[in-house]
Amino acid sequence: MIKNKLIIIVIFVIFVSSICTSCQSHAKSPINLKDLIYRSTTSLKGERIFYPTTDKLMGSGLLFLPRGNPPYPTILVNHFGGGTARSMKGIALDFTKQEYLAFCSDYRGCGYAEGKTEWAAGEVDDVLMAIKYLRFRGLTSNKIGAYGISHGATISIIAAAKEKDIDAVVAESGFYDMVDFYNHAGDFKGFFNDYCGGTPEQVPEEYAKRTALNYVDALNSPILLVHGKQDMVIPYQEVILMYFKLQINGKPAKLLLYNEEGHGIFSSARTEYMMKVYDWFNQFVRES
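Given the sequence above, the corresponding structure tokens read:
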């Protein structure tokens, strides 16, 4: 019996040692056993974190680490309206395979975060405070990108206008003119009253601060704009206007339009599209 136990222990030690050796071959410096066990239990589900944000609220999110040791080039993964950090888990894991740290925000009103949804107002602060948190922990390098879908696309662009250290943005199916978004909302205009505090006529300043078009002058990050021409939520003409304003102001931008896609790129075209996303971030966010 004792002999069998010793054999099992020896096999386990050899197994762990082989894994450590494999991991070390990919890392900048050796990974210890404690770190290895931590990675194996958090790499797929993400680490749930909490951090203070503005308005005395507690923000939250999911942190996904790539292999190797920090600091890492980082992608902020910003979810769509009505989603949560966990809604973006699959995309985040794909970014870690590209050797980026991926952080998915539960901005205010979503998931585990405090507060209520404000539609691209206080949520921008939550994303920017997440950058400070990641820096405090020594996890992020000086290379940061932002990827967002719909609500998250708008948040990503406004965040880049306010934080000069965001090196590149991919904005998929975003709204760029809040008043135009309201005008196309039909029976859902009541949500705008709740989130913005009234109609565009009643509180024009609230709609102005949520309109990405108003931040073009402050943008310097290269922006990849992506939209489906069959989008029934946010007409693709909005992204045309955003791209045009970026161009006439000499801002670095590229536009991808998909003829058969709706709100988000979800068909068979997504695989090829994500390769373009990786290329964009590799060009501007990857460590030189």
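Residues 1-42 have pLDDT under 50 and may be disordered. Try to locate this feature in the token string yourself.
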